[in-house]
Amino acid sequence: MKNLLLFLFLLLGATAAQAQKIAVSGRVVGASGEALPGSTVLERGTSNGTSTGANGEFSLSVNPGATITVQAIGYTTQQIPLNGRNSLNVRLLAAAQDLNEVVVTGSRATEGRSNILTTAPVDVISAREIKAFAQTDVAQILSYLAPSFQSARQTISDGTDHIDPASLRGLGPDQVLVLVNGKRRHNSALVNINGTVGRGSVGTDLNVIPTASIKRIEVLRDGAAALYGSDAIAGVINIQLKDDSTGVTASSTAGQTTQNDGSVFQADANVGVGLGGRGFLDLSGQFQNHDYFNRGLADTAPLIYLGNNSGQYPGGTAADTEQKRRDLKAADDKIVADRGYDRNNLRVGSAATRNIGGFLNAGYRLGGGVEAYVSGGATYRTGKSAGFARLPNQATQSDLTVFPDGFLPFINTTINDQSIITGLRKTIGGFAVDASNTFGRNQVRYDISNTVNASLPQGFAQQQFYAGTLTFMQNTTNLGLARKFTELGPLATLNVAFGGEYRRDQFQIEAGERNSYINGGRLIGTTPTASGSQVFPGYQPSDEVIRSRTNVAGYVDLESDITEKLLVHAAGRIERYSDFGSSASGQLAARFSIVDGLALRGSLGNGFRAPSLQQRYFTNVSTQFISGVPNQVLTVNNENPIVRNSYTVGGTGQQGFGVAPLKQENSRNYSLGLTGRVAQVVTLTVDAYQIDIDDRIVLSSAFTRTNAIVNTILGTLPVSRVQFFANAVNTRTQGIDIVANSRLPLGEKGRLALTAAANFNETTVRSFNSTSTTINNDATVGTSNLQNTLFDRQQRARLENGNPRSKILLSANYTYGIFGLEARSVRFGEVQTKDADPARSFLDQTYSAKWITDLTLSVQVIKQVGVAVGINNLFDVYPDRIIQNPRNDPNNFSVDPAQSYSSSLDNTNRGRFVYNASQFGFQGAFYFGRVNVAF
After folding, report:
1. φ and ψ at 139, to 5 degrees?
2. Is residue 516's pLDDT more than 90?
3. Where does 419-571 have alpha helices with state H?
4. Which residues make Cβ contacts (< 8 Å) with residue 157, sequence separation at least 6?
5. What whole-number distance in Å separates Cα of residue 721 and Cα of residue 599?
6. What percent of the chain shows pLDDT beyond 70?
7. Are the C-beta atoms of 521 and 450 separated by less than 8 Å?
């Protein structure tokens, strides 16, 4: 009875306390009446606050005598006593000198710091910037807004067509850590095994996060393994989700290229709901449909129907004179015309994709000082990309009774991604305590269509195959404590943070259906036919794997304003992995104010990246075209005897390359920079850096049977080549980042924001460090030498020059009343490709730098509706064309071996590939329109 009375008393007291609150609502606008979404509205002296919705509206429960603080970046803060009012309409004036944005990435301090007052450089990308232009995917948006970030869509590269490889500061996709609301984001299940930038890496699929859910993105450009753990060698991308407590926003975007393809349609919505003044619930949803585009050209193979396996003239006397070749070509052209065959037989461009996703972000004060929070989402994405066409005369790769005119096979992916973060926050004994659990899952399913298994009996009707599924799961449990001490002895402030983490990773390969990988035994004469579904043979039962590992980590983080001029930050972290052991990292950083408005900052530290489970255990057989010829290439995992066992002359059992188990990459980071204000209207940061990485993991080139040792190791396996992962090289990356911002009021209604930013970087391979004596001692002469194959000049060029070594970004945002103009020009630096064979260095090519200019015009038609139209790549700029050799011409009838037709003397793959995909893509100019609604 006593307990019941006590409960009722507490309940009545809480109700009475709530009854003393009043609800205040209103709208925050700029000087010319434009809505200011994302403004902060606080009850002064408390943590009770909210953010304005897309139309600048807010609602908040406060004490009757409260004073309301209203803040917005770029505007003068206002303090407004309520004096009995329950409605406020606040007009903020532009403040030219207010260019700072508070960031939380890169420090575990209890209070954020301005991005020019931190010890490390942090870029801040707002929701407005995300929506300013036509890019609708996070990776593409960052490519045009963050100079140190690079991502370009690939083509005809299997799963990599559907998950963009991305890099920061010129390093690999797996050397940047992605956070959501400060919590580690799980990686993709996909490992990039084809000849693209980021080959051999496992990145994070940024494009599963709806842009409608994002409040801002913070890009930390500094090694941060000591703060956040593995992968943070190049830096950290922290995606902060929206936490609005009021308002509904929606937008719809539609557009297409000037070639009338590559159409895009996107619709998204975000709803913010206040939870009785005690919390918020933010819901976001997004639908995207991207159509493919094709920039391939006609196949230059002389003969489509009457030639040999690669479309060239037959040997012997059938085509030993120019006239015979002309006659054959004329006969073949007639068949092509009669059968309606299209020589533009590839899709060289981005894949067709459809994306449906939703995210939530919520927080709620439970009472007793405890706050619960949850965020997460689910995304379902389908994609369809083409492989290489099979010609009508390629009988061993086809079934001519099913596809008498050849076929273009398709790789269909289904990507399911789910994540959820749950946690509790409370202040205990002066320490802010945060306990959380983060779960993430990424799954990639492959279905192959419009294809055959050529080895099955002729006339077999199956044209679609389930080829298997990759799944990666990660669960991370965190406990963190932080407290800020003031006037602690000689220190002005000391922020102490420490905590621990337990993480479990799991990777799984599920085999495809039987017909997707078997060899059915069909022969053409005595010639065997190709196994498995053409373009992508399914994962086999021998490829199936379920592997997991655990990781335990502890960290400590100290940050102190030693004096008013000197800020010092130190962090340390120890991690222990169940599969390869322990790693320790540390960092020391400082910022010193030289004079008012000018400061020097720098950091030094070491970091690491653990080998991913995908790199350790991925195995498959894929069809890869090498110099236009299909090869069955075995990617074998690092634990396989083919990799692990040593080769001995005349040895028995499974011979192998004798490569050591994968171990972590170790890095050392150094940075030094200046931050400052110029004339109170410009902020400027300049940061130089150096990143040394030892034992960098690479995916080898394909070892070929032309090497006797490889032929012995592969034995009777039905493959012609093999590749695997190994710690093989040491690299050094040096660069400089420059960012300048200015915000200027122009009269009562006008406002101009200017940004100039640049990144210049250079990665060099310092040394090669194979662990295999078999590889190191191979005396084979030529390109099939094992040491050359492990890391050849093509791979080296991809690592050193595959991404632009520089990027310059210039942008301007001008608003006048209800009108707005966004202009941006980005210079993507040059890239370079090289052939693996030094004797074929004539195929090396440097692609020059290009400027891409975007323009958007917008108008706020009425209070709730805004309209924008624009064009990306205003001047229809394309990368340099891949050089095509004159001999690669379908009308080349020469019989002189030095002049006759040859498609192997350039990289156009029989004239069909025209552009390199590594700078900014090659879709050309893109027009779009967008409608924004807010209420």
Report:
1. -65, -40
2. yes
3. none
4. 192, 194, 195, 196
5. 55
6. 93
7. no
Q: Is the pLDDT of residue 591 over 90?
A: yes
Which tokens belong to 403?
């596809």
Residue type, 601: R
Cα 521 to Cα 531: distance, rounded to the nearest angstrom? 9
Structure tokens at 242: 């929206």
Report the C-alpha gap between 538 and 179 in whole angstroms: 33
Question: For 292, phi and psi rounded to 5 degrees?
Answer: -75, 160
Average pLDDT, the chain: 89
pLDDT surpassing 50 at residue 519? yes
Q: 457-473 burial, b if ≥16 CB within 10 A, otherwise e?
A: eeebeebbbbbbbbbbb
Q: What element of type H or E holds 261?
A: none
**Could you tell me the two tokens for 187?**
């990686």
Of 135, 29, 133, give the one whose Cα is nearest residue 868: 133
56: left (phi over 0), alpha (psi -120 to 50) or beta: left
Cα separation, 577 vs 760, in Å, equals 35
In sign, the C-alpha dihedral spanning 192, 197, 202, 207 is negative
Q: Residue 435 carries which side chain, given as an amino acid letter? A: A
Exposed/middle/buried for 428, CB within 10 Å: 0-12, 13-18, 19+?
Answer: exposed
User: Rounded CA gap, 861 and 385, in Å?
Assistant: 40
| CB 244 within 8 Å of CB 174 | no
Select from 889, 935, 881, 875 the least CA-distant residue to 907.
Answer: 881
Task: From 461, 502, 458, 465, select the one nearest 480 (Cα to Cα).
Answer: 502
Mean pLDDT of the 771-791 span: 89
Confidence of residue 32 (pLDDT cuts 50, 70, 90): low
Say how far apart CA 163 and CA 203 lie, in whole Å: 9
The model carries a pTM of: 0.87
Alpha-carbon distances, residue 756 vs 146, 809, 842, 920 (angstroms)? 11, 6, 38, 19
**Are 540 and 533 a contacting pair, CB within 8 Å?**
no
Nearest in space to 71 (alpha carbons), one of 51, 96, 97: 51
Return the SS3 of 514: helix
Q: What is the DSSP letter of 882?
A: P
CA nearest to 400, candidates 449, 458, 341, 338: 458
End-to-end CA distance of the chain: 50
Which helix H or strand E contains 384, and what residues bound it?
strand 370-386
Distance CA 372, CA 425 (A): 6
Residue 284 and residue 378 in contact, taking contact as beta carbons nearer than 8 Å: no
> So what's the pLDDT on residue 626?
60
Q: Are 239 and 178 in contact (CB under 8 A)?
A: yes
Q: Compute the radius of gyration of the chain from its Cα atoms.
A: 30
Q: Where are the beta strands (DSSP E) in 616-724?
A: 620-626, 629-635, 665-678, 682-699, 703-704, 721-723
Chain position carrying tokens 């958007």? 856
Q: Determine the Cα–Cα distance for residues 633 and 703; give it in Å rounded to an integer.
A: 9
| Cα torsion 716, 717, 723, 727: sign | negative
Region of residue 597 (phi > 0: left; psi between -120 and 50: alpha; otherwise: beta): left
* Nearest to 74, CA basis, from 25, 34, 108, 131: 34
Most confident of 104-108, 742-746, 797-801: 797-801
CA dihedral 80, 83, 87, 90 (to 10 degrees): -20
As a whole number of angstroms, the distance between CA 483 and CA 559 comes to 10
CB 467 within 8 A of CB 537: yes
Give the strands of the sheet with 620-626, arranged side by side. Answer: 620-626, 629-635, 721-723, 703-704
Task: Collect all residues with Cβ–Cβ distance below 8 Å to 560 and sequence separation of at least 6.
Answer: 491, 492, 493, 494, 495, 567, 568, 569
For residues 721 and 761, the answer to whether their CB atoms sit within 8 Å is: no
CA-CA distances (angstroms) from residue 28 to 62, 415, 853? 17, 41, 33
Across the range 363-372, mean pLDDT stands at 92
